[in-house]
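Question: Send over one sample?
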Amino acid sequence: MSLPRCLTQDFFSQVADSISKSGDQFFQDVHESSTAIKVLCIQQSCVAENKYLVEVLDGSVPVQYKHTCLALVPPTADGDKQLVGKVISFNQYKITPTKSRYLIILTRIVILPGDYRHLTCHLGPALVYNPGFSIEPKPSNPPTAVVPSTHVDPAGPKRPSDDFAAPLKKSTGPYGAAAAPQPSKPIVKAPETGCPTPIRISDLTLYSPKWLIRARVSYKSQIKKFSNQWGEGQMFTIDLCDANGEIRATLFGEAVTKWYNFIEEGQVYSISGGQLKPANKKFNTLRHSCEISLDENCQIQLYQNDHSIPAICCNIIPLKDLDKVEVGSVVDVVGIVARVKDTKQIQSKGSGSSTEKRDILLCDQSATPTWLTLWGAKSQMFPGRELENNPLICFKGVKVNEWQGKKLDTTPSTKITLDPVIAEAAEVRRWWSTTGCNMSFDGGRTTAETNIEELFPVRHILNAANQALQFKSLGDSGITFTTRAMVEVIKESTFSWPACSECHRKMSNDTGYWCCTRCQSKNHPRHTYILTMKITDATGHLWASAMSGVAEEIMNKVPAGELISLLEGGELNADGKNFMNVFEEARLSEYIFKIKVTSEKYMDEVRLKYRVMKAMRLSRNMDLAISLRIRSIKEIE
């Protein structure tokens, strides 16, 4: 595993050795280093203002252990609080013992430039804590009789820092005491004097020993039935928000039966007694690093409506910034509906099931119109001509996709709010009433044309793809790059495949007659391009595939069926060109390519696949425009 070379090697091993050899004086001293110590952050959790509990790696190889530290991060000018994937540099630290292991407190911190999140996204689950930092539990004294008392311990509650590095243990009751008998119905009460003080959702961490939150349910899912090796089960999820953040909670089994009808979307509840665990980002798209697991023994009380808690908690991004967001990410947007299309029925090729979709064009003050697709029941949320009156809508939790440029799609958990009462919506409304209503929005963005300055050399694409494959960070959606390169070679041996004109599946010709094995159609196939070509620039080359319309564009718009006829008949087409002439003309042409990198498993070997998603041929005028634009950017820098 290749980590950044700047990381300090064997730092934590040396600290562990010092802990085992030194006495209590080692924990009392503040240690300083003459040279900066550099570690890589792979997880973070905010515990207080400018204080973060982080899991880090040093430069030790092989990579086996992660280490828990408390980082005292000074505020930055831009307010950026993202530490994951960043290299943390410090030259002062202190060791403090906690309940289960030693905690390292980092001070005099500098966050170095660079982003290594592609290395960290799969590292955490595979690593364990260094046993050299563990604290062996002391043998307990023989139990003695305890006299019941109602007096409060004068020592006060245990310090939260004692549990920073100890995993939260599941207790039988909400605050560590024995669970009280559960009533037949959920508890419903107004706030009482003397109740535990709620904490902010943003302050919840894996090391919060006892907590109570007061939050609004911003989303409630349907009950999902499932079956696994332990039998059948059921679950549902809720998203909780307060004035400072949001977090997801999941309920399983008996908790579903007890709480599902009691919890209502939009209501405020006091919740305690759940178990905090790391958020599973495969299913949880909220920004919080933790999620809550609630069971039938947790405490959920309906609270009187607290107007300080917003109805929705959004992290709105301008539509123009979608170009910087990776495909597959989930974002929150707000905008005016500038155009709307009719509802359509879409049939899935795989399952054969049908669903409804409706496309709307969103715009905001950034004047970057973007298409958004409403799927399923959400396409029927606005009956009649309501969408044609340019309503202001907030979409929380829409997925970023790419189809002829960046676009957005709703998901089952997307929350749609008409005329939201948030600051970003007020700005959009003000822009529309003064400027936007007089503008013309004919269509959405085209990424390849608006971002032609973000070009990567072929060598960079190869290195980044290999690094992503090594650290298993490609994901299901892959990575997309834009590059300027030339088509050097196109293979003539296999350039098309016979597609059924009815169901678009591959047809066979085993008996001398074309036949589709799926729909039994015997019509003549519609030949479709599947090119394999070598793409080259000054830094290197790669082999990529191109399909259908993109390949036809590269082949100078000569249909694949016509090329098959030229190959079989050995004749000339209307332009006087034979089979080889068509390929020769397609070679040595320069394009702006949008290339998607994915991985596949073949013969137990994982390998990379490069596919051309879009190809824009360069003309002399465009070539000059690109050069001038790049030159102007460099002058600004």
